[in-house]
Amino acid sequence: MIVVFYWSDFVVPLNNESYKYPVSIKGVILHQEKVLLLKNDRDEWELPGGKLELNEEPMDCLVREVFEEVGIKVKVKGIIDSWIYTIYDDLHVLIITYGCYEVKNDFYRISNEHSAGKWFSLKELEDLRILQGYLNSIKNWYRKLNLYGQH
Question: Average pLDDT in the 49-70 region?
């Protein structure tokens, strides 16, 4: 049963049945002023991270996902930004990006979720197939760390 509140001609669902987006938590990880990107199955470069699980804190999700995808331990410093990404006409994802620092790198590997991984300088990003939202997040993290414009 759907319970609604009528206000003029506007209908507001009150039973939490409004459209829901999956949430993907992504990290901008810098090492020697380069950012880590992974190549996905759509042949796009993306930030490491993944789906937020039920009852999981976003920062815990990011630490877990980064370790699963590349074997790197990170410290999450803070949120950079967020946006809705339409992957396909009927698939939308809320992307939330966080700035990270590499804490410990015992090994570096790419999981089977991605076909490649590489550390890129800010200048190298210009020629990549990468979402504008990711570029914005990367540039914002560089700015926050006072690294933007030095490359």
Answer: 94
